Amino acid sequence: MTGLRYVYAVCRPFGAALQSQLRGVAGDPPRLLNHHGLIAVVSHVPETDFSEEALRARLEDLDWLAATARAHQQVIDALTVVTTPLPLRMATVFRDDSGVRVMIEEREDDFRRTLDRLEGRVEWGVKVYVEADPESAAQPAQPARRAASGRDYLRQRRMQTRAHEDRWARAEELAARLHETLSSRADDTRLHAPQNPALSGAAGRNVLNAAYLVRRDVSEEFVEMVDRAKDDVPGIRVELTGPWAAYSFAGEETAREEDTGTREKGVGPPEEDAGEGT
Amino acid sequence: MTIVERREIALVDLLDRLLAGGVVITGDITLRIADVDLVRIDLNALISSVNAQVPSPWRELT
User: Fold this and answer.
1) Check: CATH 3.30.70.260 for A121-139+165-265?
2) Where are the domains of chain B?
3) ipTM exceeding 0.90, yes/no
4) Structural domain boundaries of chain A?
5) Does this model's pTM top 0.95?
6) How far apart are CA A64 and CA A42, in angstroms?
7) A103 and chain B in contact, CB less than 8 A
8) CB-CB: which of B3, B18, B31 is closest to A55?
């Protein structure tokens, strides 16, 4: 069978076998391609879906994208059970095995360095939401009681606004405190851009969307810390996802090529692209 | 390891990582990051339209 090569991750050789029923993005079982002492986890994908042109069109198809993302994640999950994989960005595709080998040769120093940094660690995602205020959500713009005068009305509005601001201030305080506490147990952290509620479908507004790189042997403690924060403040929801492979920590300098959304929190020095052109 | 919540991973969390995280390698089939960002924008519209049938309980209050 020909076809293209889809690469999920690079890792160090590991003893265990992958589950035999594991299937990759196009239903093909992932194989281990050993080269220069590193393993690329690869499966065959058809050119009809994964050539450049086809892929661009396919990625716009939400059902296809979702199925592919879940299949990709399944392989990464299976790898995470047996080793610490360095996950590649979704849809990294090569013509053939020799293309994959060349890629390993070109990047092997990077890979080893990053694999060392990630060794024995997983990523946890923590999001903090401010829940919709039940009262004002029920009656968005109306004052609670009939306003006797314009001044009353304005005062009631002001009180409502203040209640929202309080909630916000509490949420931001909690988020900052939680981030600080969790960071103390993490080897690295990333602040992602808050998720758009329309995109996530999650209730409430996302005020913290952070990723933490945590040693496996500290993870239980880390999860308990998040768990404890959950009931701290009413109206504020804390969500935990993971353990993930270290997707958010796979790049050497994330500020450079990762999603620019994270920059709004002021991560990373802005100097890089500054002084060009004269 | 204790796993507190083992729900199916939300697509948005998954895509946050798969499309924005991971090592970026120029493969033989190259979708540049810029292309993927474009996809994300379209995706935004797509998912919003899907979710429009199930409105979020949160209303913009500003």
Assistant:
1) yes
2) 25-53
3) no
4) 4-118, 121-139+165-265
5) no
6) 19
7) yes
8) B31
